[in-house]
TrEMBL record:
Signal peptide: none annotated. Pfam families: Pyr_redox_2 (PF07992). Keywords: Disulfide bond, FAD, Flavoprotein, Oxidoreductase, Redox-active center. It catalyses: [thioredoxin]-dithiol + NADP(+) = [thioredoxin]-disulfide + NADPH + H(+). PROSITE patterns: PYRIDINE_REDOX_2. Residues 4-291 form the FAD/NAD(P)-binding domain. InterPro entries: FAD/NAD-bd_sf (IPR036188), FAD/NAD-binding_dom (IPR023753), Ferredoxin-NADP_redctase_2 (IPR050097), Pyr_nucl-diS_OxRdtase_2_AS (IPR008255). The gene is trxB_3. This is Thioredoxin-disulfide reductase.
């Protein structure tokens, strides 16, 4: 069994930032993630709003840089899926697909997963025309017609990537107005092949081997029309990755982790950072801030609970 001061579950922006600062503060830190480093930004082609970086950066490059910074500070980053957590006195045991990890404090930073529409045909055709990543799958739809569901930043950013490849991009959103940042909306308007369908949603996906068409429902009148489409890209929000916690800490009705002002959960010694926590706006700058804040709180907790004078001195 591996022993650490801090176990960070999740190698996204919040988790890697927390690991970097906690390790720099003298803690023995391990970061655990089953999907590699980067989190949700991994598939973003050009990030323009990361704090301290005036130039756009690809998500996979940012993830690699954050990991390098964490490792340089002394943190260890491991590829591992964590499926359960228990407590033994003042230590926490994390179990998964590798040997267990024990730590004096835990940071929950597992992020979120893209939310599905939950409509007929979507699951069947997932990976066969239904996607959540334009930069990954966009080249498969060159000169084809695609539908993007969502009106926020992610939907409009991805629609612009698709517009450079597909012949036509139809953005279907459920509000009267787009909710994306005005600057993103303006850039999207420069693409003549992006169209919009407001107050609407996709209610079904059709096709045998691949997506062939979608049904679009008008939310005001209730009428439905079938539209030809070769691809469907869904960006309607995120669901927190918290099912594995299984009652270990208190969750909100949306599945987010409840925290106090110190980002501590209902269980002392377990903290949460990034968009997995309740109240997060799921913005990159907030994830960075969360990572820095939670690292300071974790170091304070470890110093207060250290079992010996030597250990206490190491953590201060």
């Amino acid at each position: 069994m591996s022993e650490y001061d801090v176990a960070v579950v999740g190698a996204g922006t919040a988790g890697l930032t927390a690991a970097k600062h906690a390790a720099a503060g003298g803690a023995r830190v391990v970061v655990l993630d089953s999907m590699g480093v980067g989190g949700q930004v991994l598939t973003v082609e050009g990030i323009t709003n990361f704090p301290g970086r005036p130039e756009p950066i690809a998500g996979y490059d940012l993830g690699a840089e954050l990991m390098e910074e964490a490792e340089t500070a002394g943190a260890e980053v491991l590829l591992a899926e964590i499926t359960g957590i228990t407590q033994d006195h003042d230590r926490f045991l994390l179990e998964g697909d590798d040997e267990p990890v024990r730590a004096g404090a835990v940071v929950l930073a597992g992020g979120s997963a893209r939310r599905a529409l939950g409509v007929p045909g979507e699951e069947k055709l997932d990976g066969r025309g239904v996607s959540h990543c334009a930069s990954c799958d966009g080249p498969f739809f060159r000169d084809r017609r695609v539908v993007v569901v969502g009106g926020g930043d992610s939907a409009l950013d991805e629609a612009q990537i698709l517009a450079t490849l597909a012949s036509e991009v139809l953005v279907v959103h459920d509000r009267a107005e787009l909710t994306a940042d005005p600057a993103i909306v303006r850039r999207a308007a420069e693409h003549a092949n992006i169209g919009y369908r407001a107050r609407s949603t996709v209610s079904a996906v059709h096709g045998e081997q691949r997506v062939e068409s979608v049904t679009i429902r008008d939310l005001d009148g209730g009428t439905e029309t079938d539209e030809p489409a070769d691809g469907l890209f869904v960006y309607i929000g995120l669901d927190p990755n918290t099912a594995w916690l299984d009652g270990f800490v208190d969750l909100t009705g949306t599945g987010h982790v409840g925290v106090d002002a110190a980002l501590q959960t209902s269980r002392p010694g377990v903290f949460a950072a990034g968009d997995v926590r309740d109240g997060s706006a799921a913005m990159l700058h907030e994830c960075v801030d969360d990572g820095e804040r939670v690292a300071a709180e974790v170091l304070t907790h470890l110093a207060a609970t250290a079992g010996s004078d030597a250990e206490r001195s190491r953590m201060i």
